[in-house]
């Protein structure tokens, strides 16, 4: 791997072992980027094989690229394993006019469906109560909450996309979620980093990465069937969900737009929404509960705030958040600390651009190290410590930070950020309103290190008890 930076084009050549455990991988991603940035500055190039990737390290460089030059850095870098199956459709991995059109449609449709408004909040509140009822069935016995915490956010996003609410034992949706979860794990593996860097190896390199295509094809088939069902019962005067808004748009599209508004593009877009809205949320919730058990003084303070602001008998609502600074700070700190997507999805520049005295050619991949922002000691003292105080001022009021970028920033920022923030607040406060968390081991023995740390930082599996309060 050749590194090129401010000191000239010669750079230095390193041999790095790309296969290994999550902590070796984390070291390569984070500590090495930090060390390289100290030598080469906040902008430098890594050559993995023959592929140049510009690395942006630190808040200033990332902000300048994604916000100040957002349009020029709005391309999506190549993910060969996924592109081979999705063919460039969907929201997350598409490019050019296709991406602009589907992103614009998605944002507008989510707003029409009530994103950030009361009717979406009602859906999340209802699901939070179902979640509590499922947790009550454990009767305070040790349990692994992964399955239940997968179902709740999945039901929310499925109700938005195709108006379905699933029972927590529904075999079809459980299989779908298994495919989503498996793909995220595979994409976070060191082996996947090799395949994305050296795509010529994909067909010859043995391993679980071959399951990605099978899983995506299964999910596409399932969603295309849902789309056909919606088409048969479509009422163009009363669209109820994302699929129906899309099918109406498809009917209205002109000749040029029709190629973008295909059923395959719709299926891939729903896959992106469900993938981001389910696995990302469930992993964050699991990580949050693990951290709350590791630091029991934190949930104790949150529960005091719940008692004071909400009480025990009414459901939490989003209006409560402004009166609960410690709870708000705790949720922000969970997202900052776990650093769920450490290196963000790859960007690409859409044209030749002069950036910080470098000429970056059109199409060059750009990696933005969100770790360097979320774990930057300049903004967050002791960044490796879990401390809600990072988001509180000296008077205990919630303190916003421009460095809080778990959803990325700019043109490619997460389209579901508003829903994610709502779910985190309502799910966590509802759980802590109804239960005390009891660990099976002493807090000092709880290991919060991720089991995988590539595409996403995935929490370890664990068991604990939900004790009704």
TrEMBL record:
Listed name of the protein: unspecific monooxygenase
Keyword Metal-binding belongs to the record: yes
GO cellular component: endoplasmic reticulum membrane
UniProt organism field: Rattus norvegicus (Rat)
Location of this chain's protein in the cell: Endoplasmic reticulum membrane; Microsome membrane
Mode of membrane association: Peripheral membrane protein
Family: Belongs to the cytochrome P450 family.
SUPFAM superfamilies in UniProt: Cytochrome P450
Cofactor(s) it depends on: heme
Enzyme class: oxidoreductase
Residues bound to heme: 414
EC number: 1.14.14.1
Entry GO MF terms: heme binding; iron ion binding; oxidoreductase activity, acting on paired donors, with incorporation or reduction of molecular oxygen, reduced flavin or flavoprotein as one donor, and incorporation of one atom of oxygen
Pfam families, per the entry: p450 (PF00067)
Keywords assigned by UniProt, alphabetized: Endoplasmic reticulum, Heme, Iron, Membrane, Metal-binding, Microsome, Monooxygenase, Oxidoreductase
Superkingdom of source: Eukaryota
The UniProt record lists the keyword tRNA processing: no
């Amino acid at each position: 791997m050749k590194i090129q930076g401010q000191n000239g084009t010669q750079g230095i050549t390193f041999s790095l072992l790309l296969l290994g455990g999550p902590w070796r991988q984390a070291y390569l991603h984070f500590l090495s980027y930090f060390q390289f940035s100290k030598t080469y500055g906040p902008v430098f190039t890594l050559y993995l094989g023959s592929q140049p990737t510009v690395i942006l390290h630190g808040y200033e460089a990332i902000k300048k690229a994604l916000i100040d030059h957002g349009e020029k850095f709005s391309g999506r870098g190549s993910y060969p394993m996924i592109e081979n199956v999705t063919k460039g459709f969907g929201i997350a991995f598409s490019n050019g006019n296709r991406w602009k059109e589907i992103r614009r449609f998605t944002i507008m449709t989510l707003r029409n469906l009530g994103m950030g408004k009361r009717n979406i909040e009602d859906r999340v509140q209802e699901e939070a109560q179902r979640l509590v009822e499922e947790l009550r069935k454990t009767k305070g016995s040790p349990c692994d909450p992964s399955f239940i915490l997968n179902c709740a956010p999945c039901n929310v996003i499925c109700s938005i996309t195709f108006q379905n609410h699933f029972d927590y034992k529904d075999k079809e949706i459980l299989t779908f979620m298994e495919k989503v979860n498996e793909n995220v794990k595979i994409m976070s593996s060191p082996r996947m980093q090799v395949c994305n860097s050296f795509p010529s190896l994909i067909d010859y390199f043995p391993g679980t990465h071959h399951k990605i295509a099978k899983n995506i094809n299964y999910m596409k088939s399932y969603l295309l069937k849902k789309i056909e069902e919606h088409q048969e019962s479509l009422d163009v005067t009363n669209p109820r969900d994302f699929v129906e808004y899309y099918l109406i748009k498809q009917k209205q599209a002109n000749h040029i737009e029709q190629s973008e508004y295909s059923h395959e593009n719709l299926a891939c877009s729903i896959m992106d929404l469900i993938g981001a809205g389910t696995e990302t949320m469930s992993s964050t919730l699991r990580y949050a509960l693990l951290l709350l058990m590791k630091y029991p003084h934190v949930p104790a303070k949150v529960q005091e705030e719940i008692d004071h602001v909400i009480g025990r008998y009414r459901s939490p609502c989003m209006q409560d958040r402004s009166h609960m600074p410690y709870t708000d700070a705790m949720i922000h700190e969970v997202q900052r600390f776990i650093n769920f997507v450490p290196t963000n999805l790859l960007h690409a520049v859409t044209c030749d651009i002069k950036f910080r005295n470098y000429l970056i050619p059109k199409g060059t991949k750009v990696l933005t190290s969100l770790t360097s922002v979320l774990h930057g000691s300049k903004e967050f003292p002791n960044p490796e410590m879990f401390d809600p105080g990072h988001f509180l001022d000296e008077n205990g009021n919630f303190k916003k930070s421009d460095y809080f970028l778990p959803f990325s920033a700019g043109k490619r920022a997460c389209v579901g950020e508003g829903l994610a923030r709502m779910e985190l607040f309502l799910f966590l406060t509802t759980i802590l309103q109804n239960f005390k968390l009891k660990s099976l081991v002493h807090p000092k023995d709880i290991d919060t290190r991720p089991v995988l740390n590539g595409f996403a930082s995935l929490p370890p599996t664990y068991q604990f008890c939900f004790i009704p309060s």
